Amino acid sequence: MASGCRLLPLAVTLLGFLNSSVTTLMPRVSFSMGSPGRRLTRFSSADVGNTTTLLLSEDCDTLYVGGRDAVLALDVSLEGGIVLRNKLDWRPSEKDLEQCSMKGKKMADCPNFIRVLLFLNATHIYACGTFAFSPRCVYINSDTFTVSLKPDEGRGRCPYDPYQRNTAIIVDGELYTGTVADYRGNWPLISRHLSEGSRVDLKLDDTLGWLEDPTFISSTFVPDEGKIYFFFSEVGREYDFVDKFVVSRVSQVCTSDVGGQRTLQRRWTTFAKAQLLCQADGELPYNVLQDIDSLPPAADTPADDTLFYGIFTSQWSVNLGLSAVCSFRLADIKSAFSGGYKVLNRDTLQWSTRVQERVANPGECGLHNASDNALRFVKENFLADDSVRPAGGRPTLVSAEHRYSHLTVQRVRAANGVDYVVLFLLTESGYLHKAVLLPTGAHVVEEVQVFVTPQPVKSLKLSIPKGLIYVGTSEGVLRLPTANCSFYWTCAQCVLARDPFCGWDAARRVCTGLSAPDLGQDVEGGNVEKACDSVTSVHRARFGPNNLPAGEPLPVSLHEVVRLPCPAASRLSRQWWERPNSRLSPELFLHLDDGSLSFVATPATLGHYLCLSAENGFRQTVAVYHVKQKSAPPPGPPGPDAAPGPNFTLWMVKAAPKEAAFRDGDPLLAAQTPSYFKELVAVSVLLVLCLSALLAVLLYAVKQRWRSRTVPQRADVHGRNSAEHDALRSGPEESKRNGHVRGALDAASNGHLPNTPI
Length: 758
Description:
Layout: H1 2-17, E1 29-31, E2 41-43, E3 53-56, E4 62-66, E5 70-75, E6 83-89, H2 94-102, E7 114-119, E8 124-129, E9 136-141, E10 152-153, E11 167-171, E12 174-180, E13 188-193, E14 215-222, E15 227-235, E16 246-254, E17 272-276, E18 288-295, E19 307-313, E20 323-329, H3 330-337, E21 343-345, E22 350-352, H4 372-380, E23 397-399, E24 404-413, E25 419-427, E26 431-438, E27 441-449, E28 459-463, E29 468-472, E30 477-481, H5 491-496, E31 503-505, E32 510-512, H6 528-531, H7 537-540, E33 552-556, E34 561-564, E35 574-578, E36 589-591, E37 597-600, E38 607-615, E39 618-629, H8 646-661, H9 668-671, H10 677-710, H11 722-729, H12 732-737, H13 739-749
Parallel strand pairs: 1-27, 33-39
Antiparallel strand pairs: 2-30, 3-4, 4-5, 5-6, 7-8, 8-9, 9-10, 11-12, 12-13, 14-15, 15-16, 16-17, 18-19, 19-20, 20-23, 21-22, 24-25, 25-26, 26-27, 28-29, 29-30, 31-32, 34-37, 35-38, 36-37, 38-39
């Protein structure tokens, strides 16, 4: 066992190098917050935050929102905005807040955070909140929006901690929940409440390790099976060679379960769980489930074709930061539960797979009437031996650029009658991606920024009849249409989007929804030539010298830096620049990272410039510019006070004949160029003067240095009298005769008076 643990990191590293399923998911179009190209409707309230629990009415006209200390009823039937219809305040008292603080909890976590909001019946809504770490539940009349009955204790129905994830669903007036039953979060439960008549509330057996530190994600009801499936992640005790190895699970309970008669009284007799394995062959698994949503089967297909799409991340360092989406078929889940089961050794608490006599079928409905021996068998054999593998044998998509946290899924029928699956994926950075699943892989049609500040809790709610999607964040609720067809203004753009919601209406020349017949659309190929009956020559033809478009005029001054923007048709397109009958030399033109072209305006760079784009084999022109020189204003008559200098008058007189000589031809541009001859002469004269002065200084310095080497140094030469000069000019004999003069000279040369001892 120890050697296996030492080899595990090496195996993980080797498998990480073999991971080849990662693909680049580049959204074709991106919309920032508040962009006019993507219409968003926002609702927020200053006194209500954490609006993350969403419940949509059956007619899709009212959205119920559970927030902090309040439940809201929002009118979403209006296209122009979201209106607050009713508000129910439900907050803890000062005493409750004080008791919460005494438990050692932060005051910011003590308000009442609504975590369960479900329709109980046609007239009432069932809501549960954390209520200062003492969960409570109430019945809300949906018509009057008031609390009808006495509040229920929320233990086992709602988490204590507002950050603890939970799941709940109501089937036939009974509440099925997956949560924790203590404020420390150490007692996980899957239970049933609100049972009436002969039916009793049920929960898991407390003595068995049926759940190992789970994080509940979602739950769904399958009517044809009479079962409720819970999705969560937990510590996989069967992998004892890895400490706290997280696995994703799916578990089931039957709605007809009423517990055993002697064994498993008031306990589940139909509980079973299996592993969800989001993994490609030969690669590391994405083992941590983040969110999951169900996709009902298409019309005239069996319920076994129900798909569950989930977001998975990995706890392995080589896959850290990656997000994967896997889909699982209901038929494969049923097959795992109908197979063999692992055996738990009560002494060592280790799971094993061994052949044993099968007394009962774990997970089978109707075991409440089984014998005690059969119930003891299902009590100890609840972990399926087989794992549920993804449909298609590999993840649907894997993204290295975006970390997804929530999703919702929808099936859309395109113009050609083919059904496509569309995923709405919410990233942790605040963008909502719309991705269509194609045979060649996932294609991200667009991304829309829905919040700027990272949100700790988020939720998605899809309204298929209205074509809307709601995003619940800590700051408010946002609404946006699932389709954005009006953004695409040409047939080419509409087809290249490959959006199954949109098609090109040739009669009205607009990109519209699929309500109109005979729409141009190619979701899988994006073939513009095939889907569009006619494409204008301005988008298709290559421009020559005789068919240049007028383009956008851009007057510039000579020697001015010009920057021509090139709006990208999409993030999947390739842009480049062309100039008719000329090559864009890299010495003169600079291609910027944003696709713009920059250059200095000269007579050689004036003219037409074309920005072209190619995507999916279709070539089009997205911008045409005509760069020309600004026309100089005609000189007016000088005023009475004007007194131009001689140089100005001379330049005008000499330039006038030259300008008139070229007025009818292209050389006019060169003639109108302002002259810099005077400046050149002035700079040249200054340069000559500076060089002359420098040369004179150097000559003077050399001369002085030469003289210092040839002439003896004498102190106070100008102060000497005539006798001193005669002594210097006389010979030795004369010097001896005139000794008193030499002594005076020596005294003077030493700086002292004669006959003064030194």
